[in-house]
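Example record

Each entry pairs one chain with its bound ligand, N-(5'-phosphopyridoxyl)-D-alanine.
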Amino acid sequence: MSRTVYVNGAYLPEEQATVSIFDRSFLMADGVYEVTSVLDGKLIDFDGHLARLERSLNELDIPKPEAFDDLLAIHRELVARNEISDGMIYLQVSRGSAGDRDFVFPDPEVVKPTLVLFTQSKPGLAESPAAKSGIKVISIEDIRWGRRDIKTVQLLYPSMGKMMAKKAGADDAWMIEDGFVTEGTSNNAYIVKNNTIITRALSNDILHGITRAAVLRFAKEAQMDVEERSFTIDEAKAADEAFITSASTFVMPVVSIDGVTLGEGVPGRVAPRLREIYLEESRKAAI
Ligand code: PDD
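Structure tokens for the complex follow.
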């Protein structure tokens, strides 16, 4: 079935939706995005994603799309039109098309941003078998730019990282800078040692995950110990547990790092419990 997607004010069948070849997201990766998950037809952490979108736009001086205040309604309309029960909504805003290629930003009074949204249906998203078995990660060098707090569409290196993982028989990669883990290719990274949850503190080095914020809040509410600090890959390999968080994976246990098995090689106690709490609370708060 063809999806209905949204492009600059219009709901269209995906085959009819087009963006200019001069769009700056196409030529310069000059755009930002958000991924919001949908469970039972409702949006998870929508307000957090909207707030981060606004921040990403501000940091890059990309004007807010005219429809910014209608984004909740647009998300809901796409969920309804595409009959999404479980899945994701992808949203992208680019600086638009100046009708030519030029490094200099176009005048925001003249060139309007491009706004695109589409759905991805993933029935049973929250019941992923990987959450039961855990995933394997490898470590790779983090060679991305220095503003990883901005959710830009520059995803070539994260894609390469996933390919390196696949080639090594793993599921994903954690990136290392100056010996310390920054984050996963498309998720935040955590370890658990002696029942303490350890994850890198927020800075420009990592994306400020919306799932991360919620999970840390729930962990603290459940009286779990949380330390926001950097950890090395060796510390991770010696950890009791590890896991990742993102809008599309929620909380996902990691059972092997660079071929080193963590604990018994199956998800431990903390990550599955956090996943359970996160899913329960997020479903309750979904809009
Ligand atoms: N990725 N770190 C990076 C580099 C990410 O790309 C993501 C999200 C996260 C987790 O953020 P959040 O919890 O807000 O989803 C951390 C999305 C899911 C993606 O690119 O598909």
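The pocket of N-(5'-phosphopyridoxyl)-D-alanine is lined by residues 35, 183, 186-188, 207, 209-212, 245-248 (CB under 6 Å).
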